[in-house]
Amino acid sequence: IFGAWFDEGRITRVLDRNDAWRLLAEKSITRYRDIEEISGISFYEEVGFLSLVDETFKDKEGLENAVKSIRQSGYQCDLVNSSNANEKFPDLNLAEGLFGYHQPDNSGYINPRDMVNAQKAIAASKGCEIINEAVKEITKEDDMYQLTLANGKTIKSSKVLLATGAYLNISKHLQHFFKAEVALNLTTQTVAYLRISDEEANRLRKLPTMVTSYASGALDGTYILPPIRYPDGKFYLKLGHHDKFEGVVETAEEVLDWYRKGTGDKEAIAELAKFLQTFIKDLEVENISGGCCVTSKTPSKDAPYIEEIGKGLFVAAGGCGYAAKSCDEIGRIAAVLVVEGRWDSDIEQERMKVVWKNK
Length: 359
What we know:
Layout: E1 10-12, H1 19-29, H2 32-39, E2 44-45, E3 49-53, H3 60-72, E4 78-80, H4 85-88, E5 99-103, E6 108-110, H5 112-125, E7 135-141, E8 144-149, E9 154-157, E10 160-162, H6 167-170, E11 185-196, H7 198-203, E12 209-213, E13 222-224, E14 228-229, E15 235-241, E16 247-249, H8 252-261, H9 266-279, E17 287-297, E18 305-310, E19 313-317, H10 327-340
Parallel strand pairs: 3-12, 10-19
Antiparallel strand pairs: 1-6, 2-6, 3-5, 4-5, 7-8, 8-9, 11-15, 11-16, 11-17, 12-13, 13-15, 14-15, 18-19
């Protein structure tokens, strides 16, 4: 089983033009430190977040409204433009005409592996039994669901929550209950890893996480993480693309082939590396490599799906590439719905209802 969270860094920030994703992120971020303290596992680096656009950006009003909203909520969010960019970010080559906003705190990046481990540790301490086995099939008899595991064992339950990301449809777990599939678009993502020395990592240690939303070469934008030490002991700068270079995968075989290949799109890696070596001043790179994952997107990308789609059968899916930072709140909303049968969010329940294909 492959997963998009098998990595060391995911951007987290409150600043978002979409109010639903903004609220999900804010609720999650405010709990990070408590989760770390209770679990004893650290996963959050509060290094700040920088969003950059240029004059061609189509939703300046939406960006300004988002900034206004988080400022009203008490978050610091500073304008960055040609008059102060070099002073605030001396290691970056910010071209004339770029501008954006810097959120210096309550943002940065999480280690998704460690965050999941922290959440699981807390769950286990509260009596949750964690079973590390793949579910091969889900059936139902009377009012009880039966989950058949890869090891041949079965589990029976009156309620089931499917939070299986890109596997929601291709796993065929819903085939005994619905003729239609959930409307999820699966797209491939490529990331570039630029390995740098310990000395270079130290020089760039104050970089925030960043999202650029303007064209450069064949790219339509990027997301960038600061130097992070990976399990091999080396420091890497990781960056990925926006919509350009996304590919569509539809079957289990296509998803598995993409993950097993493991290196992503070569052209995308070259473009990303080229961009970053211009974007960061005097960047000294030791090696360039690639990686990949798959994202699952709802048709509107307005919010994730959280809904009871059949009696006792629930879905939480459709992260749209935005959900790693917000997973704690998404999971909490889903858990309350499953256990207590009520909607517990300021986001309208209608916005998270499942859309079906050909239904």
